[in-house]
Amino acid sequence: EPEVTQTPSHQVTQMGQEVILRCVPISNHLYFYWYRQILGQKVEFLVSFYNNEISEKSEIFDDQFSVERPDGSNFTLKIRSTKLEDSAMYFCASSVGNNYGYTFGSGTRLTVV
Amino acid sequence: GQQVMQIPQYQHVQEGEDFTTYCNSSTTLSNIQWYKQRPGGHPVFLIQLVKSGEVKKQKRLTFQFGEAKKNSSLHITATQTTDVGTYFCAEFLNDYKLSFGAGTTVTVRA
Questions:
Q1: CB contact under 8 A, B96 and A50
Q2: Which helix (DSSP H) or strand (DSSP E) does residue A91 occupy?
Q3: Are A103 and A1 in contact (CB under 8 A)?
Q4: Which one of B3, B5, B33, B42 makes the best mutation probe of the A interface by having the most chain A beta carbons within 10 Å?
Q5: Which residues of B touch A98 (CB under 8 A)?
Q6: Is B45 within 8 Å of A106 when comparing Cβ atoms?
Q7: pLDDT tens track of chain A, all 113 residues?
Q8: SS3 sequence, chain B?
Q9: I need a labelling partner for A20 at 20 to 30 A (CA). Which of A66, B30, B58, B101 fits?
């Protein structure tokens, strides 16, 4: 069964450093998403991406965040200057169309120290 | 935007028993999705309900969408240890934003 692949599985970074989280969505999916989940809390929407541009973003997704689809297969989330409160599990997801079920990757656990 | 409320937050179930978790909205939903997240895992899509009063079954799981499309439920019969995890309902706030409820975390006593 097709999978969404995320790397790395764990990332520890110092406060103020930049991090890039990588995702390879399912190949025939057209919509891509980033979510985050702080330990024990709900799954929070960050951003959706379609047709090579951001289609929706949450209030969490401020100027420190950016997304890119650099080569037609990878989908990345960059956090420019990490803060302690950015520590969370970050999930990438993709879907074949809008209003369809999402396939989530296994996540990247980001720890900011 | 609207936000779905899930109850209960925690459900402790004796193995073999049935339970139901609920997802409620103050506004009419276009559709509702359910996901399961095992401990330490990622959300896995279970089902989408679209029609008023719709009922769908997956083995021991029964999903229902209310007649007014303002609530949904997930009923699990004969709970097994494999049912452990958090069950989320999720609503589309628009075509590009799927918003998750807070989830019901299920533990099972063997």
A1: yes
A2: strand A88-95
A3: no
A4: B42
A5: 92, 95-96
A6: no
A7: 889 999 999 999 999 999 999 999 999 999 999 999 999 899 999 999 999 999 999 999 999 999 999 887 899 999 999 999 999 999 999 999 988 999 999 999 999 99
A8: CCCCEEECCEEEEECCCCEEEEEECCCCCCCEEEEEECCCCCEEEEEEECCCCCEEEECCEEEEECCCCCEEEEEECCCCHHHCEEEEEEEEEECCEEEECCCEEEEEEC
A9: B101
What's the rounded Cα separation, in Å, for the pair B71 and B69?
Answer: 6
**Secondary structure of residue A88 in the 3-state scheme:** strand
CA–CA separation, A94 and B26 (whole Å): 28
Q: What is the spatial distance between Cα A94 and Cα A57, in angstroms, rounded to a whole number?
A: 15
- DSSP secondary structure letter of residue A63: T
Residue that has been written with the tokens 């095992």 in this structure: B38
CB contact under 8 A, B96 and A101: no
Residues of B in contact with A50 (CB under 8 A): 96
User: φ, ψ for residue A84 (rounded to 5)?
Assistant: -55, -40
- What whole-number distance in Å separates Cα of residue B47 and Cα of residue B49? 7
